[in-house]
Amino acid sequence: MPARRKVIIDQDTLGPAGTNLQSVALLVNAPGVDVLGVGVVTGDHWRDQQVRHALRLLEIMERTDIPVFAGAEMPLVNTPAATARWESQYGKLIYNGAWDLARPGKWADPRRVDDLPEGNPSTAPAAEAAAAAYVRLARAHPGEIFLWTAGPFTTVALACQLDPEFPRLVRELHFMGGAFAPQTEAREFKLTPRREFNVRFDPEAARVVFRAPWPRVTCSPIDVSNHTRATPDLFAAIARAGTPLARYLDQFGHRNRPMWDEVAAATWIDASLVTQHDDCFIDVCLEPDATYGDMASWSPGSEPGQGQCRARVQQRLDDARFYAQFVELCAR
């Protein structure tokens, strides 16, 4: 019998449901997979509120054995004020995640938590900080753990700084993030095809991660997933299962939205869903100009040789098999 795969999930678990938590559900329900923990980082929303959504999802799925770790509350360098200054020079960003909330009269306090539409969790997060937990688990299982991440890279960067050997102890980094040349009419990517939220929210953390010595890196960018849609038909098929998760998704699942994180989860579960990859070196632009936070990439042999990591960048997806897998795992 093949060994079960061990994975740490690093995610900004905005909820209820939606691409963030639906990807977590796929990974938790995947056969032959042991989820060792879910780390939650500020990204689409503030960390503390997102921690509660993650806890509640695991309660609904009856998987409270999986610990939830609080990750980074703020990026390494970037702030709402710094982003506002950048926008005053180079134009408004389409999407700012938690920074869109960080204004008086909205949700300026990152520690504020509100009642959840899906019900408040009765469980609590682990006392251990996420970065410390990642290092501890990697040391306990050297070469065995996959690190799957679909939020800003802040917590992962902190783990790399906490233990410089951490990346070498991980079997593979598989991340949702970045954009190269997505075929889309979406305003967010049409005019700035190299800009993507997970990388742009904390570019300095992305630089730390992209220059760390991972044995293997897989990038699931906007390019491979932006055309997908979470259609009502998918949720109707899942609802027929009648499980607590199916009822949760039937009520809260986001219809007709791109399935960015679900694709990243599904293609980690079954790599054969990807029908075309690019092999390239990747980095992030940190110049304080209009390119700040944009992805950079080079073909092998043309990279600058300053520590950029080599990545398998997903390009094309077997859509039919992906949708079938999404329904199957969410209906388990």
Counting DSSP E segments of at least 2 residues, the number of strands comes to: 9
Strand content: 15-25%
Instruction: Name the shape in a single word.
Output: globular
Radius of gyration: 19 Å
In order across it, which strands form the biggest sheet? Answer: 3-2-1-4-5-6-9-7-8
Unreliable stretches, pLDDT < 50, 5 or more residues?
Answer: none
Helical/strand content category: alpha/beta
| Average pLDDT figure | 96
Features:
single chain, 332 residues, alpha/beta, nine-stranded mixed beta sheet, 36% helix
Give a written overview of the molecule:
There is one protein chain. Helix 1 runs parallel beside helix 13 and helix 4 packs across helix 5. Helix 1 links the parallel strand 1 and strand 2. This protein is globular. By secondary structure, it is α/β, with parallel strands linked by helices. A 9-stranded mixed sheet has the order 3-2-1-4-5-6-9-7-8, with helices on both faces.
